[in-house]
Amino acid sequence: MPSLFDSFALRGVTLKNRLVVSPMCEYSSIDGFANDWHLVHLGSRAVGGAGLVICEAAAVSPEGRITPDDLGIWKDEHVDFLRRINTFIVAQGSVPGIQLAHAGRKASTYTSWKGSGAVPVFFGGWQVVGPGDAPFNYDYPQPMALDAAGIQKVIADFRAATVRALAAGFQIIEIHAAHGYLLHEFYSPLSNQRTDEYGGSFENRIRLTVEVVRAVGALLPNHLPLLVRISATDWTKGGWTIEDSVELAKVLKAEGADLIDTSTGGNVPHASIPSAPGYQVEFAERIRREAGVATGAVGLITTAAQAEEIVASGQADLVLLAREELRDPYFPLHAAHELGADVAWPVQYERAKPRQAPS
Ligand SMILES: Cc1cc2nc3c(=O)[nH]c(=O)nc-3n(C[C@H](O)[C@H](O)[C@H](O)COP(=O)(O)O)c2cc1C
Question: Is-catalytic flag, 181?
């Protein structure tokens, strides 16, 4: 029976445990650059003992940013600071990963603490793109439908971003195909009404995701794994379903994806989502069982016992934490103590390591 503090190998990369820092946008960049905030934010979570730290959604093009403040990886100048962060993460015995993203029709919006809805062009916003011209919501920007050349540019942008991510020392690449951003917009029937080879049938709607996965995968050396985050359901009648996700996972596995990071929702504003502890785990479990591919579970996982149970019962191979890692960057060290696993603490913090087993 696997345990949370067992190592886990993905191709040639071995994670020291199954706890992952889920990608979290910090909206703290200027012109896409990482800075001291990202170094401290990601670095302290590596110090905290996570096996894998996935850097927030990094926009593969300026128009693919959710907000003007997003992290980016669309130019070579972005690489240097990211490399500095990764050197630190590796020195802590953790693995640095990055999520490559394009926000599609949900781009050009305000950072939550600055406003809401669309950022107009004259305030630094931009023309957004999507599968069609329908906006996500009434206060979101009106997208322009991508034409064939636009689609090829998206794929080329993911490709170029991958080359930069490798140059920056990331050892795991995750493609963001969830939460109502561009790739999800294409595979969901709720947002894709195209009549060309990228719309209509299931095969056509998943085509862009598959082409991006194939393009990125072709650039990765054999020992480096590729993850894909999907939304396993739209939580909406007539939308994308878990059955669709199982089929997509089978295709992505055949294309070389090593793990499906299983999230849900985000593609329509008024979906009714039954949020509760571990409410998305069942989807990770089903994809793992029915598509025969490794999965990550995410969403309202907040305790050591809950995370251990997910791994031990074979519901998922990895457990991703977002908000709990913000509350407690040392969650993995605390969880190890709680579960009685003897893990190494940073030598600088050794004197604070609890010696007693929890009662
Ligand atoms: C501040 C913040 C930023 C986030 N940014 C991203 C992101 O860049 N990419 C992504 O796929 N999900 C993002 N998410 C979603 C989380 O990765 C995670 O899936 C979600 O918060 C549920 O996990 P939790 O209950 O542990 O927070 C973000 C969540 C938070 C709280």
Answer: yes
CATH of the domain at 192: 3.20.20.70
For the stretch 58-117, pLDDT in tens is 999 999 999 999 999 999 999 999 999 999 999 999 999 999 999 999 999 999 999 999
Ligand 1: centre distance to CA 19 (Å): 15
Q: The whole model's pTM is what?
A: 0.98
Which one of the listed residues 27, 110, 140, 181 is annotated catalytic? 181
CB 281 within 8 A of CB 247: no
Q: In terms of residue numbers, what domain contains 217?
A: 8-352
* CA-proximal residue: ligand 1, atom 13 (nearest): 24
Count of domains forming the chain: 1
- 1 falls within a domain: no
Q: Is residue 359 domain-resident?
A: no
The answer to whether residue 358 sits within a structural domain is no
| Ligand 1 pocket mutation, candidates 25, 99, 179, criterion most atoms within 8 A of CB | 25
Per-residue pLDDT of 153-212, as tens digits, reads 999 999 999 999 999 999 999 999 999 999 999 999 999 999 999 999 999 999 999 999
Query: Is the beta carbon of 57 within 6 A of some atom in ligand 1?
Result: yes
Could you tell me if residue 113 is inside a domain?
A: yes
